[in-house]
Amino acid sequence: MGWQQAMEEALTDAPGVFGVAARHLETGEFAGNLDDQLFQLASAFKIPIMVTLMREVEAGKIRLDQRVTLQRDDRVPGSGVLQELDAGAALTVKDLATLMTIVSDNYATDLVIELIGGLDQVNAHMRELGLNEIYLRHTCWELLNHCVGMNELGPTSAGFAEYERREETGEYEIIHDVSLPTRDNNVATPADLNRLLAMIAQKQILTPASCEVMLDILHRQQYNSRLPALLLEGTKVAHKTGTVNGVVNDAGIIYLPKGKGTIAITVLSRGVTDKIAAEHTIARIAKAIYDQAMGDE
């Protein structure tokens, strides 16, 4: 059985629409499903943000050891831990990039976006890299606002409280559906996001040292119920998850044991009807391709 067939079997009875791009970085072996279609990235959009941050660090515009002070009025809800801390804590930029990635901290993410000059900088950088199908339109604050029918331009304490009230009560109407795979949302094709991951893994962008920083952070991922879940214990996976509404994603690099090489794999979804089943589908896809690459050992 080849990679494509193994992946298609893993997609049987999937609880939604799944886009997949998986490539063996040494042999070029590939499997894809809807890999040229746009999907909402959810928090997987934090990968391109991290890449652009490292470009700014290399340019000397930002230092990884410079500190950013948390402000109560700037808090962003949703995933992460910084919103729970007292105001006044001063974290390094590297701390923010790490929290943005390994616990998907939304407040940390929006602080990083501000540091690098906004999402337009990320979009421009992606075009420079030849990645024309990655579009970032919303900060975490804006994305979450839209999820509960709000349209507050920037974070405030009152906006934070209103978001939590609406999420708890369910009393809202959607004015902008962030799940739609359209270019006015945070979207990408699985193929392009996977190309970005391959560039990082193969150290084809920025400096090797910057790529090592990013891979080290991605390796520390705390949410491991998707790509790594069914792989042999101890398998190294550098990855970033994403979840919003009916979207359940994971994208990263699998380091095969026994010198068998490296796999860049991106699984994006929409219309998911069961989050746990979707996580298991992503895990099955990764396991199917892993087994093919290992020769079914």
Descriptive labels:
Beta-lactamase, 5-stranded antiparallel beta sheet, 297 residues, alpha+beta, 3-stranded antiparallel beta sheet, single chain, 10 helices
Topology:
Layout: H1 3-10, E1 17-24, E2 30-33, E3 39-40, H2 46-58, E4 67-69, E5 90-92, H3 93-102, H4 106-115, H5 119-128, E6 134-135, H6 140-147, H7 157-169, E7 187-188, H8 190-201, H9 208-219, E8 236-244, E9 247-255, E10 262-270, H10 275-294
Antiparallel strand pairs: 1-2, 1-10, 3-7, 4-5, 6-7, 8-9, 9-10
General description of the model:
The chain has 297 residues and is α+β, with helices and mostly antiparallel strands. A hairpin with a 2-residue loop joins strand 8 (236-244) and strand 9. It has a domain at 1-42 and 184-297: DD-peptidase/beta-lactamase superfamily (Beta-lactamase). It has helices at residues 3-10, 46-58, 93-102, 106-115, 119-128, 140-147, 157-169, 190-201, 208-219, 275-294; strands spanning 17-24, 30-33, 39-40, 67-69, 90-92, 134-135, 187-188, 236-244, 247-255, 262-270. Helix 3 (93-102) crosses helix 4. It is globular, with a radius of gyration of 19 Å. The two termini are 14 Å apart. The protein has a five-stranded antiparallel beta sheet, sandwiched between helices. A three-stranded antiparallel beta sheet has the order 3-7-6. A two-stranded antiparallel ribbon has the order 4-5. The protein is built from ten helices and ten strands.
